Every structure is written in structure tokens, then in C-alpha cells.
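Comment on both lines for my students:
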Amino acid sequence: MRLYTLVFIIFIAVITPAKSQNKVQFFQTNWGSSLGWDQFCQKAKASGYDGIEVWMPNGADSQNELKNALEKHKLAIIFLHGTSKGTTFNESLKNYSQKLEAILEWKPVAVNCHTGSDFFTTAQNKAFIDAANKISKKHGIPVYHETHRGRFSYSLPETQKYLSLIPDLKLTLDISHWMVVHESLLQGKEKELQEVIHRSEHIHARVGHAESPQVNDPEAPEWKGALDRHLDIWEEIILKKWKEGHAVYTITTEFGPPNYMPTLPYTKVPVADQWKANVFIMNAIKERLKIQ
């Protein structure tokens, strides 16, 4: 009987599919934070984050503090990077490329870029994307381009144009920007969103609406429709990537501080808690995807 039992156990093990290893890694923004790197990383870790997404700090001392904090609290990092404004196109492209090279020396999970400008020509914006893609391939680290007001990707139709022009363009989808640009929750635009969804390799999870890129409090019942619309789009992206074999998907919760977050007049007191809003969004995504 023991032999039969062993054979049966082996048979069950062979025919039973392995438990899915699909997961989401969550990153916390330090946007608006006044905490030092160690305190910020400690708080992010305690809140359940896998990493942080930040701009490269200035100065060797601050950079060393960041490295030490990441190692101490066992956190991954995604860096932000962007096209500088107020300079000529050539100067801006040179600075963009040089700084991106330096950032990638850190071996981050990825780099998320605020790329180009809505005042640049298509050819100029494409030059930034092409430079980033070339440097990305050189280092073997993904560089994503965020859908963002004021950049090449400020609207859905404009972004579609660049997706057609550049087959290896990879996006960070912050769809909250488009909600306000298009003054809607993009209902009925599923066809137009399909290629965007296909190219979205990273998500900035903030809930916007027709008049602003950020609701005052995502937990408030009056914003349930907006919250559900964002969750529907995010879920579609993540499930699609998992199905395509991308076992790990990254999300940065990115509710901003005052004055991006609405404040009371005169006192400038924020109407909600930024950190709490970001943790709420992380947990809402986990609940929607049924992950721990």
C-alpha cells in the first residue's frame, strides 16, 4: 500500500499546476515628504511597500544615505527622470541623456521618465524617446515614459501617435492626467486604450476625475465611480501582463501632497492624509486582484 500511495502522490504532484508566482511590487513615492531617507524607507517598509520611487537626490552625502537606507530596509528602487524645461532642445537632450546614464549605474528596477514637452515638435520628442531606449538597451534596464500633462504624452490621441511611430516605446500609465485633460473618465474609449494598455509596463496609481488629476480622498463614497474606473483599467493591464508571462508587475501609489491635494483656504490644511491615501490605493488594488 505504501508503494501505491507514493505513486499516487507523485502523480498528483505532476498533474497539479504549480501555484502562480504572479505578483505586484508596490512602490511608495516620497513626493512632498520631509522625512530623511532612513525614516522614509522605514515607514515605507512598515506600510507594506516593496520599494520606493524617487528622483535622484543631489549631492554625494544624500545619495549615500539613500543607498544605506535601501540596503538596511531591503527596498527596491525606481528612479524618476525628466526632460528639463527652460533650456534649448539640444542642451535639454544632452542633459537628459547624461543624467539617465548616471542613474542607470545604480541598477534600479526601472526608470520612469517625464519625457519631452507638449511644446516640442514630434521629431524633438521622438529624439528623447530614442535616446532613452538606446541607453536602456545598453544597460539592460527598462526605461518607461509616463503619460503626463505637459509632456509628449499629455493626451490619449497624442500618445497613440508616438506608439505608432516607436514600436519599442514603453509607458508608465498615469491615467489620472488624461481624465482631466479629456474631462471624462474615458468611458467608451476602450478601443483607443488597447495599445496603451498593451504598452503600459508600470502604473502610477492615483485617482483623477473630469476636473482634476487627483480626487480629494479616494475613500470618500462620492468618488467610488472614479475609483472603480481606475481599478478596472489597472486590473486589465496587470492581468494582461501576467497572461503574457510578465510574472512581476510594478505599481507606484502616487497621491500627491498639498497643493496637489486640495487644501482648505487660508490655513492650507490638506483635506486628506497623503500617506493614508496611497496605502488605501495599494490595498484596494490587492483586494481587486485577490493578492496578499
About this structure: The domain at 22-289 is CATH 3.20.20.150 (TIM Barrel). The radius of gyration is 21 Å. The chain has one domain: 22-289. DSSP finds ten helices and eight strands in the chain.
